[in-house]
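so the lab meeting is tmrw and i was supposed to have these ready like two days ago... anyway. pasting both below. for each one the top line is the aa sequence and the line under it is the structure tokens. i havent really looked at them closely yet so no promises
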Amino acid sequence: MTEAVNDSEQFVYDICSKSFLSLWSYINPQGKTPGKELCDVLVVCDPHVIVISVKDIQLKNTDDPGVDWKRWQRKAIEDSVKQIKGAIRWLDQSKYVIQKNGSKGLKLPLASERIYHRVAVAFGGKREVPISSPIEDDEFYHILDEQSVFLLLRHLDTISDFVNYLIDKQVFLSNTSIIINGGEENLLAIYLHNNRQFPSEADMIILEDDLWEGISNKPEFKAKLQKDSESYIWDRLIEALCQGGFDGEDWLGPDMSKSELAIRVLVKENRFSRRMLGSAFKDFLELSRIGQVRSRCVQSMSSVGYVFFAYDSDSTLQERKSELLARCFASLCQFDECFTVIGIGVNIPGQKPRDGYSSDLVFLQTQNNQWSEEDLRQAQYCRDEFGFFKNPNKTHVHEDEYPVIENTDDT
């Protein structure tokens, strides 16, 4: 486990690395000066860069609450805003993340495409001090306390879910006056209850302190959390692929390989999409174990095509990679609206392969939302010559993110 300077930073880093996965989360990255931290936590997933500053300042209770509040706000919030500003000035000149130990991390998104999200986490205010998200130099800062950051990253625990919330919240608060009684989780309650949207026509809103408790106790909300358990199969797959090393290739370095680009696509799937994908991958593994299927192609909610392939235990490493690539090309005949296709090759569960265990990724992507004539010729050849996905059994799956629980009480 990567260790932070203090417990509050470790707390925020731990939930970030759990939500956004370890490859994209950095604790105490270096700035301009070696040994001096840039910020407390940095999350990078092209094009998004989340800069997080954490301050743990205990509120002092004297005879003058107004003075106590101002002192706490200055140390817990204003100092974080200054740190974030300085971090972004340095990042604007940088091409790579510099890790805590001084080594290069992942390449930063292109400056012209980079989207910064500024987050300050203020510990110690005991929810006695009013907290607002300031706008300085036309830039928005999200101010969270320890309870709200935990709940936000518990229920928006993918990079797509979280940054979409931050972007929508920034637009909403830029046009609407709001008073929140309690923590930001009550704002999150409005967002989730309104199908991940904020009210668009209100000039002013007052949120009561019981909104989060109300939505989190709904039967369909609890059912959603239960159904999401299968989505973490996708998370575990990502971590396994990251740790697999891809035949020893140092692909986790600063230069993005096709493997890293493929992993990034997997990471950008939101929690609901991961539920569907995790369930499909689990079903595929079970069927491949009993010999009913060797490959399956799935289209995600994000219009990405995925090809799952279980290797023959007698195949060589090169044969596995070649067949996975051919199956990905053949899938283009099925994925009319997919302009990114990811192939995931794994060993059949329970079988010991002759040439050892391996996991492979294939990354196919168009440059202009249109497959080239050569790509399509290759796709048709792989389908017709090898029979890959030539006569597939097609299934359409519908599922509600928040399942409706039917009342079975007959009384």
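ok protien two:
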Amino acid sequence: MNSALPLISTAERRHRLGRRHRLAPSVRAATVPQAADCVVALHATDASTVFLSARARLTEGGPEVIERALYEDVSLVRLLSMRNTLFAVSAPLAPYVDASTARAIAAKERRTLLKHLAEDGQGLDADWLAGAEEAALAALDTAGPATGSQLSAAVPALRLKITLGRGKKYEARTGIATRVIRLLAADGRIRRDRPRGSWTSSQYRWVHTAPWPALPAAEARAELAGRWLRAYGPATEADLAWWTGWTLTDVRTALAAVGPDPVRLEDGATALVSPGDTGPEPAPEPWAALLPGLDPSGMGWADRSFHLDPAHRPALFDYAGNIGPTVWWNGEIVGGWAQRADGEVVWRLLGRPGRAAEEAIAHEAGRLADWLGAARITPRFRTPLERELVA
């Protein structure tokens, strides 16, 4: 431990989370892109997460405000990016996420698909794949937004099936459409448009779009690392490597370009903050929040011990390490919540944060129930506590 380094206490880390993640009422965001930028990116694997994460950080507005950002203004866009996971980011940040992370994922996706085509033995190759992609784009240009099923109906090539793992125990016959659509999306040539059904649906329509401007990968990684450090610092190389999915070499190169300052934490560990960001963080007013599964404030670090009691982890995470719906009080996870079939938002505390916390949490639960209205939310990744609460 280097006692000469500035100390950032656990309390100050929680102050930072409340203020910088715009969860305290006095610092909530006025726009959806601001709500995304404050945590760099919103998880989008589960359709409802984008909406509920943005809602928790906005001053006002219902689901239609977030739909407008996604599908009309296109000020918020989804990309297959960090950790090969779907995220929603503000449009100005998207080229940096694309160049730093999504490009490498798209290249790997293409190599994998071409390998499968070659192994299938139907003579499908890179030229065939290029033709199938162009036919899909032409169909979108002609008919407008379409689901995967509608694209398959319009493009004969997308109705083909290939065999994976031929001759092996796991041999399977599978359609090509989903893989071609995934590749076009990873390349930024199509994007998700309004789904069929409500905002909770994942049955997206697709639209043809222009790829993001090309940026140098190292420059883009430095930009993304700098933004992440401002949102999540103090944090470590391991935290950034986990969050991005980058190699440790890329993490260290990006951080070197940022030039972070080292600080010490209460447990004696050394962490990093943005250059000059070593001063005390003013405490926000007391605040409570009900955040959805996969919310960035719960998924931003590999080591979450400053805001989560390790004893509570089994109740709040699934077997794969995905966090479920959580209840927060002043920068600490104190419980979990769920929505029952009748629309009631129910919650359970895993500690005793006090009467003021319980009153604030009850108020937030009511506010969330009003916001949801007739919508019903079932997390894609279900956790033990969430299942218990709806049973």
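from a quick look at the 2nd one: Residues 94-120 form the longest helix (27 residues). Residues 308-390 form one domain. will dig more after coffe
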